[in-house]
C-alpha cells in the first residue's frame, strides 16, 4: 500500500518513471490471481501514468482491468475513482459526451457510498464532481450558443430563473443541482440545427420550422447515453410542450408534461420575451 501511495504521489508530480517502478514493485508482491483491491489500485495508477505519457489506448486498457477487479470485488470507491480518471482522459480528448458520462457515473457511485456510510471525503468528492459537471455543461452550452448570435448567455439565464422557480415550486434542494444541469442543457439539441436557420431574421418557412422542432428530441438522444438521474433528460425533450397539447415533440397535455420541463419552459419563454431576438 505504501508503494502504491508513493506511486500516486509521483504521478501527481509527473515523474512517471518513478511511479511506474513503484507500481511494478507492488505488482511483484501480488497474489497469483491478481484481483485484489491493491491490484486494482495499481492498474488505476498505471492508467494515469499512460495518460500522462499521452498513451490513451494503454490507459484505457489499464482502466478496464482496474474496473473489472473493482466490479468483481464490489469496490464502489475504486469504481468511482476509475470513472473520475476516465473523465480526465476524455477531457483531454475533447470528448464532451463521454466526459459527462464518466463524471455522472463517478457522482452516482460516490452518492451510493455517502448513503451507506458517513464519509467526509466522499462528500468532498461529490462536491468536486458537481463543480466539474457544471463547468463542462456550461462550456458545452456556450459552445452551442456560439452558433446562435441571438442567444448568448441564454442557457445560464434560463438556469438561474428556472432554479428560482423550482425552489418556489417545491423542488427539493438536494436535487436542485441536477435541475440546473438540465436547464443549462435544455437547448443542447440545437447542435444539429444549421446556423442559417438559428440566425434567420425573417419568419421561418414551414420546412425550416420542422427542422427547428427537431432540437428537443435530438438533445434527448445526445444525452441518453449519459444516463443523468432524475428528470434531466425530460427537461431537454419536453421544454417546448404546451399545456393545451400544441407543443412539440410529443404534444403532451397538462400534467403529462414533467414538472421540471414545465418550469424550464416558463423560464425559456420569459428569457426569449425579454431578450433581443431576430424573430420578435
Key features?
single chain; 280 residues; mainly alpha; 68% helix; elongated
Question: Which of globular, elongated, flat, extended, rod-shaped describes the shape?
Answer: elongated
Order of helices and strands: HHHHHHHHHHHHHH
The largest sheet, given as strand count, sense and whether it forms a barrel, is: none
Ends apart, CA distance between termini: 64 Å
Rounded mean pLDDT is 87
Strand content: under 5%
Given the structure, what is the number of helices?
Answer: 14
Q: What's the helical proportion of residues?
A: 55-70%
* Number of separate strands: 0
Any overview of this molecule?
With 280 residues, the chain is an all-alpha fold. It has 14 helices and no strands. Helix 1 (2-12) runs antiparallel to helix 2, helix 3 packs parallel to helix 5 and helix 5 (76-93) packs antiparallel against helix 6. It is elongated, with a radius of gyration of 22 Å. The termini are far apart. The model has no long low-confidence stretch (mean pLDDT 87).
List strands and helices in order, with pairings:
Elements: H1 2-12, H2 16-28, H3 37-52, H4 56-72, H5 76-93, H6 96-116, H7 120-145, H8 154-168, H9 176-184, H10 195-198, H11 206-212, H12 215-224, H13 232-238, H14 259-273
Gist of the model:
The protein has helices at residues 2-12, 16-28, 37-52, 56-72, 76-93, 96-116, 120-145, 154-168, 176-184, 195-198, 206-212, 215-224, 232-238, 259-273. The protein is mainly α and 280 residues long.
